[in-house]
Each structure stands twice: as structure tokens, then as C-alpha cells.
Amino acid sequence: MPDAKEIKKRIKSVEDTHKITNAMYLIASTKMRKAKADFDQTKPYFEALRTEIKRMFRVNSNSNSKYFYPLENIASDKISHIVLVVTADKGLAGAYNQNVIKRTLSFLNEHKNTKLYVVGEYGRHYFKEHNIDFVADFTFTAQNPTMHRAREISDIMIEEYHQNKFTKMFVIYTDLKSGLIGEANLYRILPFHRAMFNDDNLEQIDNLTYYPSLEVVLKSVIKSYVSGFIYSALVDSFCCEQEARMMAMSQANDNAKKIIESLKLEYNQVRQAAITQEITEISASTRARKREYNER
Fold this sequence. Notes:
Layout: H1 4-59, E1 81-86, H2 96-110, E2 114-119, H3 121-129, H4 147-162, E3 168-176, E4 182-190, H5 214-295
Parallel strand pairs: 1-2, 1-3
Antiparallel strand pairs: 3-4
Helix pairs in contact: 1-5, 4-5
């Protein structure tokens, strides 16, 4: 059994760890609130973009834009995919990263002709360690997402789409669904079905004219729409990462408190045993001296 000094040293070590996990919890909470506030400020703009795309289809529902390419007419062996995978830069966030990795591996098993763009150091490290091909010079961080970073990513991917280097664009990220539950999901960005923009409640505006043409305007709008979608994915993932880290640190805090309570109880028992032993030794010594004195 460890002595009181060793137990006291362990208590101090666990208390120091508890201070670190509590600080990480507070930092993650602050980052999440800030990211959500930034996204809420830009969300109305992208909602307006989506509404304008709906209006475009009302004006000309037969537009032959490549963003709505009829994939049903493409042979399955000719279909290629590009996937943006959003992970964190570090761990200590529960199963956040593992869920994204599992969803990506599942997609790769089903679609061999796939090119990966990975956001976050954790994902890049994992794919490198497991010899899974990905674009190595795509080194965007997952920390503190910005609209500028989302535009840079969308520009790279849309450029390849315009060059017909792939036929479908996807993003795998963690979506904060209900309450505190984050789920790694797969979403197709391009091409999308017109049904995604159908809205019977949309106000009808007659005599709309797009200059120089609807296709040109749509191309410009789609660029902003894709960058907005990627930005929302980055922010959503970042919020989920911080939420997962908060939950992990909260659990670590609770475990640390339990360990400290257990160690303090053990410390008191050892200390009490030591005091009892000292009293016993003193009593035995007193009795021995008394007998020795009487025998004289």
C-alpha cells in the first residue's frame, strides 16, 4: 500500500490535470459561441442566394447548366468523385474524428474513383499513416473557419469541376443535428437536383431578365453558393468539434473529481492507520517500560 506522502503527490497531480481539462472546457465553449455568432451573421446572405436560384428555375426550368448535369446518362464507370473531408487538427474530442474517418472509409469502399481533399491535420495524418491517397498539398486548418478560407477551398474544387476532372462533388463533415448530438454525414454539393430548390411558397415575380444570360448569372451565383455551403460545413464541424471536446473535458473533470475523492479517502485511511500504529507503539512501549520498572 502506498504511503501518505505518495498518495498526496498523486492527489496534487490529478488536481493539476483537472485544472487543465477545465481550462480546455472553457476555451472550447468560448470558441464554439464565437463560431456560431459569426455564422449567424452570414447565414441570411446564403439563404438569399438559395432563394434566387429558385427564382432562376421558375424563369427557365429547362436550363442546361452543367451544375444540373443529367448524371443518369453517364456510364457508372465514367463517374468520378471529389470529396472534401473535414476533420480536426487535434484529438481530445471524443469520437468526433473517428466518426468522420469511418464515414469516409465507407464511401471509399463503395466508390473507388475518388479524390480526397482533407481539412484538418488529424485526417491528413490518418490517411498518410494508412497509405490512403489524398491531395497532400491541400493543407487548410480546421481551426477558426473564415469565409475567406471557404472561398479558397471552393475555388480549387470548382476549378476542377469546370475542367471536367470529376462528375460529383461531396463533403463529409459533422453536422450538429439535435441538441448535443453531432453526426458525420455525407452531402452532395454538385451537381444537384432541381428538386432541391423547389418551393411552392416562393413568391412569383414575372418578367425577370438575367443579363447577359441565365447561365452566366447561375455560374456566378453557384460559386458563392458552394463557398457558402463549404463555410457552413467548416463552421458546423468546428462547433461540433468544440462541443465534443467540451463533453470529453467535462467527463474528464468528473473522473478527476472521483479520483481525487477516492485518493483523499485512501489518504485519510492511511493517515489514520499511521496514527493508530504510532499510538499502539507508544502504548506498547509505555507498558514495556512499566513492566521493566516493576521488575526492578
